[in-house]
Amino acid sequence: TLVAKITMENYSRQNLRWTTPAISTRYSISDCSGSGLFCKRLTITNSTVNETGQYQCFYIGLKAEDGKTSAAVYVFVQDYKVPFVPSEKEYEVVFIREGERVVIPCRGSVENLNVTLNIKYPVKEFHPDGKDSVWDARTGFTVPTHLISYAGVVSCQTRIGNETFKSPLYIVAVVGYKIHDLTLTPNNVRLSVGEQLMLRCTAFTELNVGIEFNWTPPHTIPHKKKLWNSLELSNTLIVDNVTVAHGGEFICSASSGQMEKSASAFLTVYEKPFIDMEEPWTKVWEVNVGEPSTYIPVKYSAYPEPIIKWFKNDLPLNDYRIKQKSDALVIREVKETDAGIYTVILTNKITKEEQRRSFQLLVNVPPCIIEKEMAADTDVYLYGSSTTLSCTARGFPIPTHIQWEWMSKEDCPEAFMQVNSSECTNWRDVSNRTGHNHVQPIRTDTDQAQKKITSSLKIQKAEAHALYRCTAANKVGKDSRVIFFHVTRGLEVTMSPSNRPLEEDHVILRCKADSLIYGNLTWFRVTNVSKSEQGTLAQPCRSLTLQPTPLSHAVLTPQPVTNVTLELSLRNASHQDEGLYACQVVNIITGEKTCLLHNLEAPRILNNFTDQKVRVSSTVTLHCMAAGTPNPTVAWTKNNHTVVESSGVTLNQQNRSLTIQRVTKEDSGLYTCTVCNSLGCDTAQASLSTEGQTSSSLIYMLHLCLSLKFATASLFQPNGVDLKTGYLSMILDSEDMPMDEQCERLTYDASKWEFPRDRLKLGEPLGRGAFGQVVEAAAFGIEKATTCTTVAVKMLKEGATASEYRALMSELKILIHIGHHLNVVNLLGACTKPGGPLMVIVEYCKHGNLSSYLKSKRGEYSPYKDVTEGDLDSHYYDDHLTMEDLISYSFQVAKGMEFLSSRKCIHRDLAARNILLSENNVVKICDFGLARDVYKDPDYVRKGDARLPLKWMAPETIFDRVYTTQSDVWSFGVLLWEIFSLGASPYPGVCIDESFCRRLKEGTRMRPPEYATTEIYQTMLDCWLDRPTDRPTFTELVEHLGNLLQASAHVMLLPPSACCFSHFVNARALSCDFIDTSSLYRLSQQNERCSRPLSVKTFEDIPVAQLLRCKSKESLGSESSNQTSGYQSGYHSDDTDTPIYANEEIIMKHKMLKKPPLPKTPDKFNTEIRYSTPPV
C-alpha cells in the first residue's frame, strides 16, 4: 500500500542524527527541538517501494546501541506490483565464506510472501524450510554456504495471483582467507652507502582474499596480480640513499584476518667496495683421470660481486667440460690434459681492483703399456739370434720400474695353443734363469717430459719358446703385456741358380720352414700383387691373389733337426714360367697362413745425395729413392736425431721424400737417409745449410709449433703393425676377401661426401669409447643450403694412433658402401681434408638409445588405446607407450637388420643400447664401431680385459667364436625380450658364469617378459633355436612382425601369463584367444621347426614369496646340476640383480602351489602356441 506521507519524530537531550535505506530519496529531515529537548523530524512524502527499510535515530558521537543510544523502526511501503525492494546496482555481489550461512539481500516490500531462491549455472530452486533456509522480508533469503558456493547467479522469486515476480540478480563470490606462500625478495641484500634498497613482499593466496601487509619499517600500498586459480599480492619497500644504520633484518607480514605469515630479509651496507680473498688450504690439487668431476673451491668476500676469470697456464679456459662458477672451478670427466696451473682473477667492477690465486692440478693416470696397441703379442724369432723386448709405460706418477717375468712353454702349453695366457699362473722373475733364454741385465730409461718409462730386456740367444710379461704400476693402477716368444729354426725361400736363370735352365725354388711351428707347405703362383707388395718377404696370404690350385710338382724333403723343405722344380724353364711364386705355410699354433716370396735383394739407394744451401723461409725437398727385396724401410736422421713429421716437416712416398717448409737456421745440419731390409742396410748423407736472416719471433713460433707437434706425435707414435680388432663392432660378411683389402678397395668420393669443417659447430658429447667419441653438432647446409641441422659427429680422441685413424676411415668407407636406409643411422658427410681431425657426420637421434627410453616410460605404458571414451587426447598418447609401439620398434629393427644382412653385414652387438630412437617413433640401428677385419685376429675376443655381451650372444658365438647373420637373429630375440620388458636387463637374477653358458647350450631359455604376448614370446623362442639354420631369417621376421603390427591396431593382445604359461607343469598345450591366424607368421610350417616339445626349460628367477602371491607366473623348474668344469669364463655379467636360489631345485619343492589345470575352452582362432628346447 503506497502511503502519501510518513512523519517520524525523535526527542532527546543530546544532538541526534537519522540513517535511512540506501536507495531512499523521498525524505526530508527538519529540526523540531524545544522545551530543552533535541528533536529531529523525518518526513517521507510520496513514498515508494524504495523507501522500504530501516530508519534509525542515534546520538551523535556515541556508539549506537538499540534501546540505549539509538532507536529504530522498519518501514514497509507495500506494493504488490513490486514485491521486492530494488537494488542500487543492476548486479550486486554477495560474498560468501566457507562453512558460514549467507544472506541473499532480496528484501520484500510485503511481508509473508511465499518466496523461493533460484540459482543459475547450474539451474536449481530452494524453498524455505524454516530451519536452514529462511526468507525474511527485512533481511532476505538465508541459506547455508555449501548450497550455493558453486552457483554463479542467484535471485528470489514469488508469485502473487497469476503473476511471477523476481528480485534483482545477485552474483555469488567465494571469499577466501588462505595464504599459500609469502616471499620476500631478495632475501640477502648487500649494498654500499648511497644505493637504493628495494624489497618486494609477495603473498600467494586463494581467490578473493583481502591481505594487509605490515613492515618493520612501515608498509606501502600493495599491488595485485590475478593468477589462474590464485591471487598474487605484492608490497614493495623502497629506501633511497641507504646508510650503515639501515643494515639489519627487515620483516614483512601478511594477514588475511584468519591467517598470517611473515618473511624476512637481511640487509648489509658497506661503506665502500672491496675484495677480500682467502688463502686456500692447499695449492696443489690431485685427482685421478676419468673421475666424473673435480672441484677447486675459491673463498672470498666482496662487494659488489666481482668479475671472475679463470686461466690455465696463463691462457683463457674454453673447454666445454670446465664450468666456471662463482665459488669454484668444476672440471667434469677429468682428462690427462687437464693437468696444469690454474689461476683465478677477481676484479672489482667499480674500483677495478684485482686479486688472484693460483693452483696446480695434478692428474694421476694409471700406467698404459704403449706396445700393447702398436705391436703384436706373438713374435717369431730365429734360433740363436739376439733380440730385445721392450715395454714402454706412460702414466702419472711415472712408474718407478717395470717388472719382467717369464714362463716356459712346458709350464703352460695351452697358452701357446690358444694364444691366451689368462690361465697361466707359474710366473717367475727373469733373474731366475733356470731353463730359459739367457738375458742381459734390464735397461730402464725414464722420460719425465713425456711421462713414460721404457724397459728393455735383451735376449742374448733365442733358444726356447717362452712367455715374457712386463708389468708397470703406480699408485692408481697397473698394466701388463704378455709376449709369446716363439723360436724358429728357419723360414726362407731360395732359388737355384741364384743368378737370373736362362731359358731351358733347371730352376729349383726351395721353401724351408721350422716344422715345430709351420706345416702344410704349398707352392702357388701369384696372379695379382701390387708393386709395394712384391718386395715383401713374408705377408698374410689374404693380401695376395693366388691361383685357385697349388702347384702339384713340388717335393717335400725333411731336413736335419726340425726343418722341412718343399722344392718346386721347373725343368727347361721358359718365359711362360716367369712371374712371382709364393710358398704358403700354416702356423700350427695360430692357424694363420703366411706366404713367402722369392727374389730377395739387399737394399740400395738409387739417387745421389748432394749438399744443399737454401734461403731462410724457402722450401726444400730431399729425396731418398730405394730398392730391394723385401721392400726396404726408410728412416731419416738429422745430426743423429730421428726426424719426425711436424708442422712444416712432412715425409711422403713411404718416407722416400723429406720436405721442409719455411726453412729456418735451426734446420741446418747433416741429414742421413737409412734404408734397411732383412738383408742389410744402406745409407746416404747430405748437408743442408741456410742463408739469410729470420726474426726472433718467427723462430720462437716455429720452435713452439714443432715442439708441440713432436710432443703429440711421440706420445702416440704408430708403427707398421696390424690394427687391433678388440673394439670392433660390425664387420662385412665376406669369405672371399679380407676386411683390410675390402676397405682399401672401397672408395671415398670427396665431391659427394666432404663437408667443410668451418660449417660444423661442435657441441656437447653424446658418448665416448676407448678410442673415439661422439659429439652433438650443428651442421650448416649439410641437407639444404640455408638450413642448420643437428647431427652427430664421430671422431677420435686426442693422441689417437695411425691405426685408429685408418680404422675410422675404414668405417667411413663401410658406411658409404652400406648405403641409406630409414632404420639405420645414416652417413651425412665427413671431414677428411688435412688441417683438422677426421670427423664422420651421421644422423642425430634426439631420444637417445632405446633401452634408456623404455626404462623412462615404464610408468606410462598402456597395452592399447581406448578410443571409446569420447574425445581422444592425442597428447596423452604421444607420451604413453602402447603394445603397438613395442611391436613397431621390433618391426623397424627387423627391417634395418634385413637391409644390413642384404649388404653382407654382421652387426655382432645387436641390443637395445645400440638402437637409437629418432623423431616420429623411428628407430635406427647404430654402433657400427670402427669396423675392421676380424679375420686378421681370430682370437680378438680373448685379448686384454675386454668385456663381451654374453647375454646377447648365441651359443655358437660364445663357444666357437662364430659370428653370422644367424647369430644376429639370436641377438634380435634378446632385443625383443628387452623391448617387451620395457628395458629390463636380460636373464634377471641369473649369475653369468660357465653354468649359465652350459645351460644356455643345453636349451634353457628366458621366461617371457612381462608385456610380451604369446606370439611375441614364440618369436623369441624361434630366434633362440639351437641350430642356427633353424632360426628365422630377418626377411621372415619382417613379414611376421608386420602382420602383428597391422593386427595390433584392432585387437588387445593378451600376455602369456593370462591363459597359457601357467600350465607348463602339466606339459599341456593350451589355447589362447588371439588374433586371426591369417595374419600370423607360422614358423611351424617349416618341417624342422614344427616338431618341438610342448614345454620349455627357463631360467628361474622368482622368489618363493612371489610364487605364493602370483600363481599365474609359475613355471616348471629347470634341471640343475652341481657339476663344474675346467672352463672358466673371463667375462662377467653387467646384471646387478642377485640370484635368489643357488639352483632351481627349490622351485621344484613348491609344485603343490601350482594351479590345477583350467578346463578346456573353445579356441576362437585355432591358434596353438608351442615352446621348444633341444633334447637333453
Automatic annotation (TrEMBL):
The active site is at residue 909. Residues 1116-1138, 1152-1176 are annotated as: Disordered. The keyword tRNA-binding does not apply. Its EC number is 2.7.10.1. It is a single-pass type I membrane protein. Transmembrane segments: none annotated. One of its GO terms (cellular component) is nucleus. Residues 1117-1131 have a biased composition (Polar residues). Its main location: membrane. One of its GO terms (biological process) is positive regulation of cell migration. It catalyses: L-tyrosyl-[protein] + ATP = O-phospho-L-tyrosyl-[protein] + ADP + H(+). InterPro entries: Ig-like_dom (IPR007110), Ig-like_dom_sf (IPR036179), Ig-like_fold (IPR013783), Ig_I-set (IPR013098), Ig_sub (IPR003599), Ig_sub2 (IPR003598), Kinase-like_dom_sf (IPR011009), Prot_kinase_dom (IPR000719). Belongs to the protein kinase superfamily. Tyr protein kinase family. CSF-1/PDGF receptor subfamily. This is receptor protein-tyrosine kinase.
